[in-house]
Amino acid sequence: MLKTLNILAFVVVALGSATAMAHGDEDHAKRHEYDAGKVEDTDFGREGDPGKVSRTIKVDMADSMRFTPTTVVVKRGETVKFVIHNGGKLLHEMVLGTDEALEEHAALMKKFPEMEHSDPNMAHVKPGARGEIVWQFTRAGDFRFACLQPGHYEAGMVGKVVVK
Prior knowledge:
It is built from two helices and ten strands, in the order H-E-E-E-E-E-E-H-E-E-E-E. By secondary structure, the chain is an alpha+beta fold. The strands form two sheets. It has a five-stranded mixed sheet with strand order 1-8-5-2-3, with no helix packed on it. A five-stranded mixed sheet has the order 4-10-9-6-7, covered by helices on one side.
């Protein structure tokens, strides 16, 4: 049992030290610097170059556990800037991903709600504040965005990105 706890503690510390900010930290919503040399491809696209944004999409988050709009349609190859506003009184976030990736992340957030991490496909937004995600959609298909704060995903705080 002690060995398992030590391994678990190591994983939590490793995850925390590999990232810059924590959920709920005011600075967490700040965008990191884009570095083309560090961009990684995913199943749902990659971090977008802010200088190549073709369109801005505004997304609102509410304490009713809903996003507005709930569906966004983009073209394959398009680089989009999402400007996310949290109109509620709770911390919310927008995380882009596949169904599988979001479900895995949501399960991890349940186990470690204070887990520290920040990735280009997510924006953590305090009440009344704004965040941004710049993303290039390199593959056609249906993808998701969700709030993975504990309980929010389960309450239906999920949207859809259709890439044509």
